[in-house]
Structure formats: C-alpha cells, structure tokens
C-alpha cells in the first residue's frame, strides 16, 4: 500500500487520551473517535482487527466450532423470556421501532442463539454443537473511557455450545479453553487464565483470560509459589480457626464514640486494633435486607455474598433503608439490638474475634467486649471477604500477591440457565425431553487491539507482534526526489508485493525525520530504508522491536528478508 495516497493521519500529540494504547492508536492514525466510546477504525486499524480475527477464526474452526452471524438488533421478548430484560442493568441499550415494539442492541447473544437452536435442533443426535460469530456489540457504559478498553460499541467473538450431558460440556469447555490459550499465545500476549465470576451472563464454572498490564482495570490474585490465579472477586480465602477463652470476656458495654463512624476513626479513638472490630453493612439481596459482617480490617466481597445466597441482585443498601432497619446510619450499626429481624451472614474470620467492638445501633455509640455466638447469632458463616496480599494461597499455602490485568476473554459453563428459562429442549436417547446444557465463550476483538499495544510499545510508539501487524515491512524512500532512491524503492515495492509480502511504502514527499517518526509510531516490525547509499546499491534493514540493523545490497533484500521476519517474530 502506498502511503502517499493512504488515509493514515498521524498526530504528534493528543490531549483527550490517558491510556498509552488510546494515545498511540489516535496518534498513529489507526482510529478516530466518533462519540464517547465509539470509534472508526481507519485502514491501519482495520488491518490489525482483521489479523486478530483471522487468528481467532482459525483456532475456533480448528476446535470444531461453526461460524454464523446473528442480528445486532434483537426483540425484547427474548430477553423478557430469559428474565434479563429488567436485570441486566442500565448498560442495556433499549429502543422501539415505529410500531412501538421493544428492541435491544445486543451486548451478548445468549437469548438469540438459544431461540435459534430450540427451533432447529430437536435431537441428541445433533449434539454437541458449537456456534460462534464475530460481530459488533453495544453497551451503554456510564463512563466510556480508556479508548478501546471500555467502549459503548465494540467488536466481539461470542461462541455458544449445546450439549446433551455435563461430560460433553466439560470436554468442549476444555477444548475452547485450549483454543483461547492458542489464540492469545499466537497474538504475542503475556496472559493468565484466572478463576472468575460469571456476572450478568450467569452460570457456574468460569475463567477469565487476563492480559497482564499495569493499565488493567481488574485485580488478579496470584500465588508466588504455584500457578494459582483468580479474579479478586472469586479468590478463595483460607480460614484457620482460632480458639479463645470465652469466660474471661466481660459482658458487652456501650461506649461513647461521638462522630466516629469509620473503623479507622473508632480504632484510633478507642486505641484498639482494627482486627478486633466487626464491620456491619446492610445489603439488599433480591429485594430483602441482609446484614453482612466482616472483620474490621477486611472488606466485604459483594460477588461472594451474591453467590452464597444464589441471588440475582446484590447491592449495598442506601442510608434510608439502613435507618429504617437499624434506627441509625451506617457506622453505628451492629447485629445486637436491631429493630427488625433480618438475615445475618458473617465472614468466617468473624467467629474468631474475641472481645470485639461493633456498632450499638445508637447514634455516636459502639459496643465493646462483644463475643460472637455468645452475644449475637449469625445465620451462616462463609468466605465472603476480599482476599488480601499476604493471605495464604488456597491451593498450596504460598503467599498471595496482586497483579493488574485486562480481561480479553471469558469462558462460562452456563448449564441450563437459558434453556430452562426459554423452554429450549431436545429429545434424549430415551425419547424424553431435556433442556440443552450450554456453554458460552467470549473474546473482545477490538479490546485485544488495545491490550496488545499496552504490552508492546516503547516511548516512540507501537511495536506490533508480526502476527497482527498491519504490514510486515515498512519500506521508506528517504527522498523520492532523488532518482536512484525512487528507482530502487519502486523496484523493491514491486518485488516484495509480487512475493506476497505485505508492504507499506512511504513514497511521500516528506522530510526524513517525519518519515522515521511516523514509522516508529506505527510500529511495523521490519523497516527497509532506501537512503543516501542508494547510489551504491545499498539499503538499510532494521527491526522495530530490538533496533538491530544491517546494510545490504538491494538485490539481496528478497533473499535475506525471511530471516529478518523470523527475528521479528521472536
């Protein structure tokens, strides 16, 4: 492709972008913003997208999946049938047609694929079956940010598998899991597969694929000693029971704590360690209040609470609800002497607290000398806190550490969540109707563009892995006004193109400094420069990643290039 007539509008600076990937994609002319969280991919960006799609498609086809394409515009009835129309959240883009019929723009397609399969597959003999698409998705993010990492319109690969039994689902899950490992490896990414929560998709058994990066929005708990990795929402906390002498602890006593609501403030005021406190928080779980207790130096994990109670919705109660139940605002709440009887759940570490401190359900007042089990009753103890750095690994007992990650893929075992809700059944070997057992497998295609850049860049610009680079070679004629340079450059462009090498030919009448800055910014793996030594028949070849370079006769470029491309791939 000739750069002189290409749409590659490079910029020296951008002011609206914070993430490195966002800055570089705008500066290098790979994309342009249309609206907040909505982007146009320009020719270079589109070529990268297509390279990623080619890798994804190759591995999915190899795993036996079949590609189809479903509509982005979906009737609301399908989502009402599954129950997600009112529970998915405000990110769901809802609209009406001219006849007043309700539709949504698909953020994901579980309902649509379930509707399709229930109408076309009615026997176990057609199972298992895995179907996938690569399509634009829509989510009305409240604060679209970070460029392609959190947009309102994005490109996604979503796959769905249908099975007659759990063993078949487990097998396909492993096959797709391995396909994802292959994909992200081929894309040149440093990633981890972590145990995760299914979120709004639903289902049990799920892994997220995280690209390790300080720019990531997700925190991953990993073990220093083994390969354990989990999203912080799902990381299991190991509890070691502690015993103490209950008879030596006095009866609960009220103490004044004027204006002291936070654990930190009360701890400082009473000169007591935070791990002696019991933090009490009200949550609304499927419209019912639940009091959740954790140790003062720990944080509640809402996902664990939601999963423990098998709830659809779990959110922190507002202050009006807290006052209605406890008579005071959050900070002075505790399980002793509540006005209303509510379900109480506590983290397992709470039961080991001796001589504890908690809210007294009175303004500016706390209780000291509190003893769990003796002074209040908990309906259920469970692991409901956030894991912390330094905690023991649940697999090997090693030390937990935190890393940041960008989620680029997610695999779920949906089970019968959608097939039962939507009456999607097949006839088994005995002629009996059974609900399809399903799996779901997503990859953020456009998000991968940004994730790759976050791991592959330097102060001068992008450094594309060769499998996804828009071009393999950037051919630069330093001065197209000099006949010897123009002649050699044109000849190389023709030879390389005929040999099937993807080449971006900078044939612009621009200064050499501009051309080299743009080349570094664009990040194409191999650069061939036709410059001052063209009169001697010599050109320079250089690797973008390492800076390694050499001079060679222009007649030898086609012969030596495969070696340089191989180096670029290492």
From TrEMBL:
<dbReference type="GO" id="GO:0005524">
    <property type="term" value="F:ATP binding"/>
</dbReference>
<dbReference type="InterPro" id="IPR002316">
    <property type="entry name" value="Pro-tRNA-ligase_IIa"/>
</dbReference>
<keyword id="KW-0648">Protein biosynthesis</keyword>
<dbReference type="Pfam" id="PF00587">
    <property type="entry name" value="tRNA-synt_2b"/>
</dbReference>
<dbReference type="InterPro" id="IPR004500">
    <property type="entry name" value="Pro-tRNA-synth_IIa_bac-type"/>
</dbReference>
<keyword id="KW-0067">ATP-binding</keyword>
<keyword id="KW-0030">Aminoacyl-tRNA synthetase</keyword>
<keyword id="KW-0436">Ligase</keyword>
<dbReference type="Pfam" id="PF04073">
    <property type="entry name" value="tRNA_edit"/>
</dbReference>
<dbReference type="InterPro" id="IPR007214">
    <property type="entry name" value="YbaK/aa-tRNA-synth-assoc-dom"/>
</dbReference>
<dbReference type="InterPro" id="IPR044140">
    <property type="entry name" value="ProRS_anticodon_short"/>
</dbReference>
<dbReference type="InterPro" id="IPR036754">
    <property type="entry name" value="YbaK/aa-tRNA-synt-asso_dom_sf"/>
</dbReference>
<dbReference type="InterPro" id="IPR036621">
    <property type="entry name" value="Anticodon-bd_dom_sf"/>
</dbReference>
<dbReference type="Pfam" id="PF03129">
    <property type="entry name" value="HGTP_anticodon"/>
</dbReference>
<dbReference type="InterPro" id="IPR023717">
    <property type="entry name" value="Pro-tRNA-Synthase_IIa_type1"/>
</dbReference>
<dbReference type="InterPro" id="IPR033730">
    <property type="entry name" value="ProRS_core_prok"/>
</dbReference>
<protein>
    <recommendedName>
        <fullName>Proline--tRNA ligase</fullName>
        <ecNumber>6.1.1.15</ecNumber>
    </recommendedName>
</protein>
<dbReference type="GO" id="GO:0002161">
    <property type="term" value="F:aminoacyl-tRNA deacylase activity"/>
</dbReference>
<dbReference type="InterPro" id="IPR050062">
    <property type="entry name" value="Pro-tRNA_synthetase"/>
</dbReference>
<dbReference type="GO" id="GO:0006433">
    <property type="term" value="P:prolyl-tRNA aminoacylation"/>
</dbReference>
<dbReference type="InterPro" id="IPR004154">
    <property type="entry name" value="Anticodon-bd"/>
</dbReference>
<dbReference type="GO" id="GO:0005829">
    <property type="term" value="C:cytosol"/>
</dbReference>
<keyword id="KW-0547">Nucleotide-binding</keyword>
<dbReference type="GO" id="GO:0140096">
    <property type="term" value="F:catalytic activity, acting on a protein"/>
</dbReference>
<dbReference type="GO" id="GO:0016740">
    <property type="term" value="F:transferase activity"/>
</dbReference>
<feature type="domain" description="Aminoacyl-transfer RNA synthetases class-II family profile">
    <location>
        <begin position="32"/>
        <end position="465"/>
    </location>
</feature>
<keyword id="KW-0963">Cytoplasm</keyword>
<dbReference type="InterPro" id="IPR002314">
    <property type="entry name" value="aa-tRNA-synt_IIb"/>
</dbReference>
<dbReference type="GO" id="GO:0004827">
    <property type="term" value="F:proline-tRNA ligase activity"/>
</dbReference>
<dbReference type="InterPro" id="IPR045864">
    <property type="entry name" value="aa-tRNA-synth_II/BPL/LPL"/>
</dbReference>
<comment type="function">
    <text>Catalyzes the attachment of proline to tRNA(Pro) in a two-step reaction: proline is first activated by ATP to form Pro-AMP and then transferred to the acceptor end of tRNA(Pro). As ProRS can inadvertently accommodate and process non-cognate amino acids such as alanine and cysteine, to avoid such errors it has two additional distinct editing activities against alanine. One activity is designated as 'pretransfer' editing and involves the tRNA(Pro)-independent hydrolysis of activated Ala-AMP.</text>
</comment>
<dbReference type="InterPro" id="IPR006195">
    <property type="entry name" value="aa-tRNA-synth_II"/>
</dbReference>
<comment type="similarity">
    <text>Belongs to the class-II aminoacyl-tRNA synthetase family. ProS type 1 subfamily.</text>
</comment>
<comment type="subunit">
    <text>Homodimer.</text>
</comment>
């Amino acid at each position: 492709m000739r750069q002189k007539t290409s749409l590659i509008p490079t910029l020296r600076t951008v002011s609206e972008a914070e993430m490195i990937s966002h800055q570089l994609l705008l500066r290098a002319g790979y994309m342009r913003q249309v609206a907040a969280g909505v982007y146009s991919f320009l020719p270079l960006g589109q070529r990268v997208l297509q390279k990623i799609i080619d890798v994804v498609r190759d591995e999915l086809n190899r795993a036996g999946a079949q590609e189809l394409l479903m509509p982005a515009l979906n009737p609301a009835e399908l989502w009402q049938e599954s129950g997600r129309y009112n529970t998915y959240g405000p990110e769901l883009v809802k609209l009406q047609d001219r006849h007043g019929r309700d539709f949504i723009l698909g953020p994901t397609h579980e309902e649509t694929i379930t509707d399709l399969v229930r109408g076309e597959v009615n026997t176990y003999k057609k199972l298992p079956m895995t179907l996938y698409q690569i399509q634009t998705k829509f989510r009305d993010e409240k604060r679209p940010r970070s460029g392609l990492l959190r947009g309102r319109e994005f490109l996604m690969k979503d796959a769905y598998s249908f099975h007659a039994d759990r063993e078949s689902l487990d097998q396909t899950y492993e096959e797709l899991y391995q396909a994802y490992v292959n994909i992200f490896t081929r894309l040149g990414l440093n990633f981890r597969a972590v145990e995760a929560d299914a979120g709004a998709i639903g289902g049990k058994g799920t892994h997220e694929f995280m690209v390790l990066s300080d720019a990531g929005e997700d925190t991953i708990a990993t073990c220093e000693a083994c390969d354990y990795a989990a999203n912080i929402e799902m990381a299991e906390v190991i509890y070691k029971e502690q015993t103490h002498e209950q008879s030596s602890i006095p009866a609960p006593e009220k103490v004044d704590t004027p204006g002291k609501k936070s654990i930190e403030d009360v701890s400082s005021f009473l000169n007591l360690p935070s791990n002696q406190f019991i933090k009490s928080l009200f949550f609304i779980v499927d419209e019912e209040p639940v009091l959740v207790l954790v140790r003062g130096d720990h944080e509640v994990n809402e996902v664990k609470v939601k999963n423990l109670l098998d709830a659809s919705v779990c959110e922190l109660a507002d202050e009006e609800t807290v006052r209605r139940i406890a008579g005071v605002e959050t900070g002075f709440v505790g399980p002793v002497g509540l006005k209303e009887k509510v379900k109480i759940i506590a983290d397992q570490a709470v039961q080991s607290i001796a001589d504890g401190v908690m809210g007294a359900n009175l303004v500016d007042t706390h209780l000291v000398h509190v003893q769990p089990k003796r002074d209040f009753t908990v309906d259920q103890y469970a692991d409901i806190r956030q894991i912390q750095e330094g905690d023991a690994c649940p697999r090997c007992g090693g030390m937990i550490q935190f890393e940041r990650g960008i989620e680029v893929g997610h695999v779920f075992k949906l089970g019968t969540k959608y097939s039962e809700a939507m009456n999607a059944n097949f006839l088994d070997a005995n002629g009996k109707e059974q609900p399809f057992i399903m799996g779901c497998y997503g990859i953020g295609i456009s998000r991968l563009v940004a994730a790759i850049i976050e791991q592959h860049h330097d102060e001068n610009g992008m450094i594309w892995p060769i499998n996804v680079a828009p071009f393999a070679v950037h051919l630069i004629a330093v001065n197209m006004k000099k006949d010897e340079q123009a002649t050699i450059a044109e000849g190389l462009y023709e030879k390389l193109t005929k040999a099937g090498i993807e080449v971006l030919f900078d044939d612009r009448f621009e200064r050499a400094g501009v051309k080299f800055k743009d080349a570094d910014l664009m990040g194409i793996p191999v650069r061939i420069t036709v410059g001052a030594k063209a009169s001697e028949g010599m050109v320079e070849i250089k690797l973008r990643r390492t800076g390694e370079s050499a001079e060679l006769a222009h007649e030898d470029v086609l012969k030596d290039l495969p070696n340089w491309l191989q180096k670029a791939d290492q």
